[in-house]
Write a structure and sequence with these properties.
CATH architecture: Up-down Bundle
Radius of gyration: 22 Å
Shape: globular
Structural class: mainly alpha
Distance between the termini: 32 Å
Order of helices and strands: HHHHHHHHHHHHHHHHH
Number of strands: 0
Largest sheet: none
CATH class: Mainly Alpha
Low-confidence stretches: 1-13, 456-463
């Protein structure tokens, strides 16, 4: 458990300098925040996309995840730097607002809102799909409503309860992951698949390796990392946020990335000829069956459902706090979105609104939901990388020694990577995303008298 850090009064002083009052409860330490970030990225994500990515990369999913981890680490680092500069709940919205432009900040919040609002929905749909397979007699909508009620109640109760439930679900995921790793090692040592635990084949196989295929797979694999940014939405509920947020953001990205690589590496050794897998959509289950039989396959199904529940819990919490930050700045109606329950100190109206959005959105196809999430996330990631350059390199003029590397080159690379991935999104994702941004642009123009009025909080803040 992390130490408490500076007294609450001192931490509240940081917020007062930015024009806010400390209203949310500071109860989270480094461990809870790290678990929150890990749960958001779903440690067993390769189970769901293994067949797709290993096919696209010609059997080099491990390499795709390695490249994706390094690419996303650049953006995770930028989030950590901006959380240190502005330890407030608005995350992407607040960083862009204060570093680049207040109106662009609203558009950034609008874009990333698409990601945060739909992440719980995605988790509900995936959990319902797997649940219906596990228990065919239980209807799809029973799973959707059941998961939605659990997630909403836990979030309304408070962030400490959220942390405790998330921790339990993450522990279960890790136990199943350990079960798979041990089964894989034993199976490989007994001659299954490649017949060895040590091989470079999952990273490089002569004759099938190609960088174009790797980059195509990386574009898919990167989306397994979506969610590390949500760590920064908890800034006002963390003890010593300036140190803790940066550490948890980067560490969670690397920890989950290494777990992704390990799973892909072992899976490719267990079944080297991926083209012979009977069903690529369920590829990982065939792989697991080779070394652990039906018991391991069942455990992975339950783990995926637990992962979806943990992700929905954390995604809803992050989205509610993003809306809270925007409501507090009066860029969206303050009376509704900045309201905190007097006892639990949680943005209860935001949480309930997100539950309604999820219920309505569950009627949409899975591919449509995924496409919309990717657009919003990559727009937000790009703007945060640019915010680092604007705040540290341009405004604060930190340009000596390693500052050029830290505040210009690395965030610049992060922005370029995100833009490259964004440009490779599907036509559907770009269409839906631009329509959403268009609505945000119209809303911003109307509420700011055609960009002539700044959010009230910026006039009061000591920047």
């Amino acid at each position: 458990m992390a130490t408490d850090g500076p007294p609450a009064q001192a931490q509240g002083g940081d917020l007062e300098k930015l024009g806010y009052k400390q209203e949310l409860k500071r109860v989270l330490g480094t461990r809870e925040l790290l678990i929150y970030g890990i749960a958001m990225m779903v440690p067993i994500a390769p189970v769901a996309i293994y067949g797709t990515v290993t096919s696209v990369t010609n059997g080099h999913m491990a390499t795709a995840y390695l490249v994706a981890m390094l690419a996303m680490a650049l953006t995770a680092r930028s989030y950590g730097l901006m959380a240190g500069a502005f330890p407030v709940a608005g995350s992407t919205y607040s960083y862009t607002q204060r570093s680049l432009n207040p109106h662009l900040g609203l558009l950034a919040g609008w874009a990333i809102m698409l990601d945060y609002m739909l992440m719980p929905l995605l988790s509900y749909v995936i959990a319902a799909i797997f649940g219906s397979t596990l228990l065919p007699g239980v209807g799809y909508w029973v799973w959707i409503v059941g998961a939605l009620v659990i997630v909403t109640v836990v979030n309304v109760i408070g962030v400490k309860s959220l942390a405790n439930v998330t921790q339990a679900l993450v522990v279960f995921m890790f136990l199943v992951l350990i079960y798979f790793v041990v089964s894989a090692v034993i199976g490989l040592e007994r001659g299954v698949g490649a017949g060895t635990v040590f091989s470079l084949a999952p990273f490089y196989t002569k004759g099938t390796f190609g960088w174009s295929a790797i980059m195509a797979g990386t574009a898919i694999a990167c989306f397994s990392f979506l969610g590390f940014d949500a760590v920064t939405t908890m800034s006002e509920e963390v003890k010593n946020p300036r140190a803790t947020i940066s550490k948890a953001t980067v560490l969670s990205c690397f920890i989950v990335g290494l777990l992704f690589i390990l799973q892909a590496y072992l899976a490719q050794l267990i079944w080297p000829d991926y083209k012979s897998i009977p069903d690529l959509d369920a590829a990982f289950y065939f792989v697991a069956g080779r070394v652990g039989g039906q018991a391991l396959s069942l455990s992975l199904t339950l783990a995926i459902m637990a992962a979806c529940l943990a992700n929905a819990l954390d995604a809803q919490a992050g989205a509610a706090r993003l809306l809270y930050g925007m409501g507090r700045d009066e860029v969206i109606p303050r009376r509704v979105f900045a309201y905190l329950h007097p006892k639990t100190k949680t943005p209860v109206f935001n949480i309930l609104l997100l539950a309604v959005v999820a219920l309505v959105g569950a009627t949409q196809a899975l591919d449509t939901i995924v496409s919309m999430i990717n657009f919003g996330a990559l727009v937000g990631f790009t703007l945060v990388n640019l915010s680092v350059i604007a705040h540290y390199f341009i405004k604060k003029r930190e340009r000596g020694g390693a500052a050029v590397l830290n505040y210009l080159i690395l965030p610049g690379l992060g922005a370029l990577v995100c833009l490259a991935l964004w440009a490779n999104l599907s036509h559907l994702a770009l269409t839906v995303g631009f329509v959403w941004l268009g609505l945000g642009l119209v809303y911003t123009a109307v509420t700011t008298n055609f960009f002539r009025k700044e959010p009230p909080i910026l006039k009061e803040a000591q920047l």
